[in-house]
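BUG-260 | component: ligand-complex export | severity: low

The export step for nicotinamide-adenine-dinucleotide jobs runs without errors, but we want the raw record kept on the ticket for reference. Input record follows.
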Amino acid sequence: MDLGLQGKVALVAAASKGLGYGIAHALAAEGAKVSICSRDEGAITAAAQRLHDETGAETLATACDVRDAAAIQAWIERTVQTWGNIDALAINAGGPPAGPLKTETDERWQAAFELTLMSTVRMIRGSLPYFNRGGAILAVTSSSVRQPIPNLGVSTAMRLAVAGVLKTFSRELADDGIRVNNLVPGRIDTDRVRELDEGVAAREGISFEAVRERSVQNIPFKRLGTIEEFGAAGAFLLSPAASYITGATLVVDGGGMSAL
Ligand code: NAD
């Protein structure tokens, strides 16, 4: 199936590695022009070069911390100045740090609000004036939108807020011909998941391998997902091939979630 992404302009946030990079790679492989950002200039420039080398796609790298409203706007405008209007936006960011709710401070709540919720709002609001009809937006959230995750309470609260924002935008933007969807990773093999598992291992005094084995046993496919598998789902949702899908939550989890 041709996804219809050839020559389309796509922005992917937090894409120097992990899930964002996976989406950017899948879009680039389908012929989209891909503008990626993350905090570190060197890392994002290297990622854009790798994307170009592996797919031949045009790429643009911008250093942007998505907690910074002005930096988001500058990234969007630089992309539009380079390639014209926008067809696709993948919202992503690092996850709020783990910790039990009883010890979370106001400062950590506020930081997560800026990182996860306001970055989503700002990326959508900032890019809307430049969006082509037929375009699409997705945000990477978390399985916590279906099943709250102990020790990730702040993240869970922010992800649920993002899910509400996405659903509302999906209805408000339908007349503009823009689709908005929620892309949920179960457990995809990235540095973030490795760090979380190392944290569990340290807390429980067991090996990293034991933590991995336990978590994999809860996944019907008995393995973590890959960023390629996740990226393919993202590219599909952002493509004209998904033209009747909006306001949806697509879960990429190897069957790991038991929630309906
Ligand atoms: P990762 O650590 O592998 O990659 C994170 C990327 O985000 C990097 O490119 C990093 O530079 C960038 N980044 C972090 N903070 C940023 C900021 N403030 N501004 C701009 N860029 C920033 O992590 P990942 O596994 O790819 O996770 C991406 C998101 O998905 C996170 O929010 C994570 O909590 C969420 N998530 C991931 C999984 C999974 O299975 N990997 C599961 C549930 C939720």
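Assignee comment: Attached the raw record above. The longest helix spans residues 106-127.
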